[in-house]
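Memo to structure team: turn this sequence into C-alpha cells by end of day. - J.P.
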Amino acid sequence: MARIAGVDLPNKPVRIALTYIYGIGHTSADDICRRAAVEPSRRVNELAAEDLNELRSVLENDYKVEGRLRTEVNLNIKRLMDIGCNRGLRHRRGLPVRGQRTRTNARTRKGKRKTVAGKKK
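Reply from structure team:
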C-alpha cells in the first residue's frame, strides 16, 4: 500500500486513489498524473518507486493538501469570525453560511431538533 502525503492510498486506479487525499479532486488528480507522467488508469500497487516519488514531488511543490490546507481553511474561517462579518457570525452560531433557508431544513448545520413546548391558548 502506497503512502503519499500521510494517506494510505487504496489499490485502485491512480486517478481514483489520489482523491483520497484531502484537497485533491478528480480534475486535480488527472492533472497530477499528467505532470508526473504516470498513467492514470494504472493501479497503485503496479507503480514503481520512481513513479511514487514523482507523484509526491508534484504534490509537495504544486498543491496544498491535508494538514496545510486544513490549517489554511480554519484560519480563513477564524478570520471571518474575528472581523465580525455576516459569514463569520453564521459560522459562530452554527447556521448555514451561504444563504440557505433555515425555517425548515438546515439540520446538518443546526443539529438535532430541540423540541419547544407548545404554547397554551
